[in-house]
Amino acid sequence: MSPETPGQARVEMRAIRKVFPGVRALDDVDLRIFPGEVHALLGENGAGKSTLIKILTGALLRDGGEILLDGRPVDVRSTKEAQGLGISTVFQEVNLIPSMSVTQNLTLGKTGGRFGMISWRRARAEAQAKLSRLGVKIDIDQSLGSYSVAMQQLVAIARALDDETRVLVLDEPTASLDADETAALFGIIRDLKAKGIAIVFITHFLDQVYEISDRISVLRNGLLVGTGPTSEISRQQLIAMMLGRELGEVESAYAAHRKTGEGAEVLTARGLGRRRTLKPFDLTLRAGEAVGLAGLLGSGRTEVAKLLFGAIRSDSGVLSLEAGPVRHASPRRSIVAGMAFCPEDRKAEGLIGELSIRENIVMSMQAKGGWLRKIPRADQERIADEMIRALAIATPDAEKPVSQLSGGNQQKVVLARALASRPRIMLLDEPTRGIDVGAHAEIILLIRRLCDQGLALLVASSELDEVVAASDRVAVMRDREMIGEIASGAVTRDNIIRMIAGKDDGRG
Amino acid sequence: MTDVARLPRRRDRVARPGTHRALWPLLALAVILIVDGMISPNFFAIRIVEGRLFGNLIDILYRAVPTALVALGMAVVIGSKGVDLSVGSIIAISGAVIAWRIHAGDPHFVILLLALAASVVCGMWNGLLVAGIGIQPIVATLILMVSGRGVGMLINLLYGGTDPSFESALLQGLSTGHLWLIPTRLILGAVLFVALWLVIRRTALGLFIEAVGGNAAAANLAGVNARLVTFAAYVICGLMAGWAGVILTADTHTSDPVSVALYIELDAILAVVIGGGSLAGGRIYLGMTVIGALVIQALTTSILISGLPPEYNLIIKAVVVLFVLVLQSDNARTRIGQIVSGGRR
Q1: Are A189 and A315 members of one domain?
Q2: How much of chain A is in helix, strand and coil states, percent to nearest 5?
Q3: Are A313 and A214 within one domain?
Q4: Domain-by-domain residue ranges, chain B?
Q5: Of A81, A274, A299, A360, which sits with the fewest C-beta atoms within 10 Å of its C-beta?
Q6: Which residues of A touch B7 (CB under 8 A)?
Q7: What is the CATH number of domain B53-329?
Q8: How far apart are CA A451 and CA A288, in angstroms?
Q9: Is residue A5 part of a domain?
Q10: Are residues A235 and A355 in the same domain?
Q11: Tell me: the pLDDT tens digits for A33-53?
Q12: Three-class SS of residue A91?
């Protein structure tokens, strides 16, 4: 009816809901994006950013809510329909084919010639036109792979854009770009913005958020926790929104439990690091103490845990356990030495989905004992049943394939596997990722109980309240560097946020 | 159980009540044998001739042994999410080693060990390429598949290569002889099966191989040495192929690297798949693999005794195999069930 009036949102997503088995991925999320604005969409892994974008671009179907495009309800059921409506996406991993020419990449699947034949003359003209829209001049007959990642990123954007584009979604477009390339990309984003295109910009670089975006929306655990103009949200507020979570009861229940560093040192890292991955850091773990590892997405939390475990090789520094310095660290050697690691990504790195709960639980224990001394079946069953009971894993029996469990129960199996190997040091990376609130509190309680039993723990987490609730001390990460440690007694949300935000916080 | 997700899972390997994964392959084997019984009335007769058992059933078992041995090794490699295309070449090489050392006059017991050692070396080579260097299994084993028969011919040239035939009481005894009425190769096959089963199921090696095949990254982080375990799988496969090489070479009294056990890798993969193994890795079914090998051999034998022209052999084999695999697929069974019940309505 009405043409675009100022104040009319280009895209309005209302009360969007999406449920995956065992997880509520999005719960009543509203998002409004206006023409000519750059809208930063922020949140940690698993917050629901990509689910929301996939629903907007037709890659996933929503379970509830509605989408309005220029005020009209639309039903986006496939990426092709989204394209037809003028909604284009550039995903983080460049979805192009390096071995093909720039022309082919720009026109693949879009060259509707006569009798299904491709008119290369027309394709080249079209490719030229697409690139000139971004002001990019390159040889379109070269293979795409011969250009830099930044240029490939621009080609991907050029492919996504056409004259009808009204909404452009950029998912982590700067993840693999250096400063100059990022600046060039931002120039192009500003041009597109001037043309009235609504741009959704997903990133985890806060500097870039403040440099390019007009408004910010933050998701956490499938909920929209805040939205507003970039100029009105301070860096501290933003970090608090991304990491916050009210877990008051658990926290207060264990606040009294705080201990000072009196246990024996069981792990010390001195100048441990790896080029391009993690700047050298010092860290000490003591028996009976939980050390939290806080920081934003991409700050190097996971890398610290993997480096200590030997899943990533260090190229500087020394790691010492009780027995002495560790040489040639590997996951197997670490486990034999009494360490255990629960990875963040359960599906990819944690569980062997086809194997049963029992087989998954005894895996590390068996690896520790060596392949020749197989744990007798009866013992395996006893251990598995004990763990299922101790951790309250919801399953009819231990022989169920682990892939059939819900997220929270899968996480408990990962913990059970680590515990069954009787470790003295446990490294937990996002122990409560993607699990519901009930299991969340249970796992925090479990962490505290393990500590009381004399285990040394490292808990890396994107949820600030979880870090506060679970740890005695907190090491804080920023930009792949351990920037400091918050001593026992001073562990509060505010202290952590202040340290992450750092001195360069000009706002708020 | 609201906690347990309810989506249907295609990769569900757990047998539902009433069906065991062994059901479909065993049913296929039974159907083939019953059809044989109808075609030829004396099919199931077993006689004793010259102090050993004779009959079609014995013949099927007898001929299935080499394929079954190769398939057992293949099942282990496939469980690690790999494949070994070079088993035919390994058979050729172990055969050539036998002929060569017999011409050199070595004791025959030593020759047996040398032939098996050669097959272990071949397995180590494959393991090195896959686990050490990280080449994709199909490509890595293609290298030995292509070159192995040439290596066999070169070994034959070591003694002139004019007459690769030989006589050996020990080796032929293992292959074509008999012990208390029973063909020795059946006993040998059974012993090797039990030995492999003990290694896979009575040590943790089987669990580790399945873990690596199911999710190598996760297995590694859980403390399993994924590379070493993968390497071991290829060595086991090489050794099993080596035993098949001993039996096949002694059977023909000659080393024929060009044509011995041609396409046996395909029959072996097929046997594993009929036995319920998935090329996606993650599970090893040793007993079922033997059933798979028997299905293939029973089919070949029945086509021969049915009097059909041999040209039909491969086509009928393909049709039956397709049928068995479709029956095994949960998806296809559901679909067929829907069509059938829809037709009744």
Answers
A1: no
A2: 40, 25, 40
A3: no
A4: 53-329
A5: A81
A6: 21
A7: 1.10.3470
A8: 5
A9: no
A10: no
A11: 999 899 999 887 667 888 888
A12: coil
Query: Looking up tokens 């560790």, which residue turns up?
Result: A326
Q: What is the DSSP letter of B199?
A: I
Which residue is listed with tokens 């009481």?
A: B169
Is A151 part of any domain? yes
Q: Residue A200's closest CA among A171, A227, A221?
A: A171
Does A352 contact B at CB distance below 8 Å? yes
Whether B204 and A364 lie within 8 Å, measured CB to CB: no
CB of A335 within 8 Å of a chain B CB? The answer is: yes
Rounded-to-integer distance, Cα B95 and Cα B152, Å: 8
Chain pair A-B, CB pairs under 8 angstroms: 119
Interface confidence (ipTM) of the complex: 0.78
Whether residues B204 and A370 touch (CB distance < 8 A) is answered with yes
Contact B5 A406 (CB under 8 A): yes
CB contact under 8 A, A399 and B215: no
Over its length of 345 residues, how does chain B's per-residue pLDDT go in tens digits?
Answer: 333 433 334 334 443 434 567 777 888 888 888 888 887 777 777 778 777 777 888 888 989 999 999 999 999 999 999 999 999 999 999 999 998 888 888 888 899 999 999 999 999 999 999 998 989 999 999 999 999 989 988 988 887 767 777 877 787 777 777 788 888 899 999 999 999 999 998 888 889 999 999 888 899 898 898 899 999 999 999 999 999 999 999 888 888 888 888 888 888 998 998 888 888 888 889 989 999 999 888 888 888 777 778 777 778 778 877 877 777 676 777 777 777 666 554
Give yes or no: residues A325 and A274 share one domain: yes
Q: Is B274 left (phi over 0), alpha (psi -120 to 50) or beta?
A: alpha
- Does B204 sit within 8 Å of A354, measured CB to CB? no
A376 shares contact with chain B (CB less than 8 Å) = no
Of A222, A243, A264, the domain-final residue? A243
Structure tokens at A210: 């403040």
Q: Which of A22, A348, A401 is opposite residue B13, by nearest beta carbon?
A: A401
